[in-house]
Amino acid sequence: MDTQNLENAAIKIQSWWRGNMVRRTLLHTALRAWVIQCWWRSMQAKMLEQRRRLALRLYTCQEWAVVKVQAQVRMWRARRRFLQARQAACIIQSHWRWHTSQTRGLIRGRYEVKASRLELDIEILLT
């Protein structure tokens, strides 16, 4: 073989070797990019899950606050109705007691004034 053929053979071997090295480098680069992309996707999924849980926790806290306020308002209204009913019952009882005390023992009487003295005739009826 002459030197020209040897040179051509050497060039072909070198270009083949460089091609293999470039392909290997591209393959490694692509694999590393794929690993980074997988990691990034998993991080995004974790962050999305954290945001979802935080939003759910905030929603739950707000809902509990609303429920507590509603319960307090319901309790306040029920207590107000109870106090109004109790006050009405006390008023009715006091009027009833006054009425019964006025009508239980009926006092009948008559009086006459004669000259200088008072004549008083009282009759107490208890029913």
From TrEMBL:
- Gene3D superfamilies referenced in this protein's UniProt entry, alphabetically: 1.20.5.190
- Superkingdom as given in the UniProt entry: Eukaryota
Which PROSITE patterns does the record match to this protein? IQ (PS50096)
User: Could you tell me what this protein is called?
Assistant: IQ domain-containing protein F6
Recorded source organism is Acinonyx jubatus (Cheetah)
